[in-house]
Known about the structure:
- By secondary structure, the protein is an alpha+beta fold.
- It has one domain (6-93): YggU-like (Conserved Hypothetical Protein Mth637, Chain: A).
- The chain is built from 2 helices and 5 strands; from the N terminus they run E-E-E-H-E-E-H.
- It has helices at 42-55, 82-93, and strands at 6-14, 21-26, 29-33, 62-66, 72-78.
- Strands 2-3-1-5-4 form a 5-stranded mixed sheet, with helices on one face.
- The longest helix has 14 residues, at 42-55.
- The protein starts with 5 loop residues before the first strand and ends with a helix.
- The mean pLDDT is 94.
Amino acid sequence: MPVEKSARITIRVQPNARRNEVVRFEDGVLYIKIAAVPVKGKANQALIAFLSDILDVSKSRLSIERGTTSRIKTIAVEGMGQEETRVRIENWLA
Length: 94
């Protein structure tokens, strides 16, 4: 019976930025600027869409586990291990 793997990413979000961008990946925390405003979940939706591009996974595989109304969020990535997630983030930054 295969174990369903999933990774966790801690993200520090700055909403209402000029554009979507990854600022840095430091001490296991991904710092991201999101252009959307934090109203009615718009910034969270934009964050999930941007992360799906960075990690090259479908948006349905990403979910906000903690911090829906906070700047610091924990995102779950279904079907991808922690190491692979870290490598994809670092490749995006390179």
